[in-house]
Fold Acyl-CoA dehydrogenase.
Amino acid sequence: MPTAARSPTVPARPTIPPLPSSARQPTSNRKEPDVTDTTTQTIDTTRSPWSGTASREELAHWRGVAESVAATLGEDALARDRANLDPTTELDLLRDSGLVNLLDPAEFGGGGGHWESAFLAVRILSRTDASIAQILAYHYINSGNIGFNTDAAKRADWYRRTVEGRWIWGDSVNPTDPNLELVPDGDGYRLNGLKRFSTGASAGDVVLVNAIVRGGELDGRFLFFALDHDRDGVTYLGDWDALGQRLSASGSVRFTDVVVTPDDVLGIGTDEPFSTLITPGIQLAFGNLYLGVAEGALAQGLDLTRARPAAWFLSTADTYRDDPFVQRVVGEFASKIAAVEALADRAGRAFDEVIALGDDVTAEIRGEIAIEIAKLKVVSTEVGIEVANRIFEITGSSSAKSSTGLDLFWRNVRTHSLHDPVDYKKLEVGAYVLNGELQPISLYT
C-alpha cells in the first residue's frame, strides 16, 4: 500500500469559535477504524437521527468555523492546486475545526448540527478551495448513510467510532462504473473490481462502497458498506488528472479479494423514500459548491478590479471601478448570485424539514424536495460557470497571468459541473411542472 503524499504545510489556523457546550471534540488525530468494536451505547430509535431545523445561533457558529477554515485554505490554494497532492494536511484542518462531525449526534460528541449548516459550510469553503469543499460535501453524504440506511440498533456504534476517530468518509460508489463483484464468502463477502472517481478515498479514513451482491440469499440486493482506509486488498491508483478539483482525491480504487464482514455493512439499499433522500442531498451539496465558487470568483474579481489604475482610454470614467460597463457586469453577477443564494437557503431549510419527518416521508414529499433541489442545481451550475468565466471581463488582461490564479474558479466549477448532465435536471423540473411526473429513483435522481 503506497503512502499518500502530503500537501505543502497549511499555514497557521485562525482562531475558531468554540462549539456549543452540548458538543465535544475528540482529541485524537486520525484514528484507524476499529471494525470489531461491539459497544452497545444506545441512541434514539426514531427513524431520523435529525430533528427540527438549524437555529440562527447554530448557523452563525458553523458559519464562523467555516470562514476561519476557508481563510486558511485560501492563503495557498493555488500553490496546493498546482502541487496536486493528496490533501492529507488539509483534512487535518477539517478534523481540528470540528466540521467533519458537524452532523453527528451531540450525545456521541458530534456537533449535533443540521444539513443546512453542513451545506453552508460547503458553500463557504468553495469560495477559496472547492476541492476541499467537495471532499467535505461527500463526507457529509457518505457518513450520512449511517442515518439514512443503517438500522437504529447499529447506528450508535457507527456514530461513536466515526466521532471518536474523527473519520473522513471517502467513497467508491460511482454508479456509472459498476465494475465491482461482491460475492458471499462464509458469513461475509469478497470484493473485487475497479471503481473510478472515488472522491476522498485515498486521503480519508474510511471508504464507503456500494455493490450488488452476486449469489447467496441477498443475490441482486444493493449493499452499503464501509472499509477502513488500509484494508488489505484496497489499492489507491492516484490517477486523478482533471483540469480542476485537483485536490479532491478522486482517483480510482482497485479492490482485490477484499474481505467484507457483516460489521462493515451499513445497510441494504431500497427505494424507500426516507433512505433515498441521500441523492437529493448530494445534489444540494453540488448546488452550494457551485454557488460558493461563483461567490469566490466575484470576490477575487472585485479585489483585482478595485486595484486597477486609470480606466479604458475610451471610458468617461477615471478608473475601472467607476466605469459603467464594469459596474453593469458586477451588478449582473451580484444579482444572480443573490438569487441562487436565496434558493439554496430555502432548499437547505426545506431539506431539514423533510428529513425530520423520518418514516413519514412519502414518495410525493421526497419527489417534491428533489425537484426543489434540481432547480438549484440548474441555476447554480449556470451562474457558477458564467461568473467564473466572465469575471475576466472586468479584471482585464493582466488577470490572466498564471500567478494570479483567477482561472482556478473556472477550472473547478467546469470540472465538477460535469458530474451529471444539468440538462437532465432541467428535464426533471420541466416534466414535474408540466405533468407532475417524477423520475425513477436512482443515485442521480
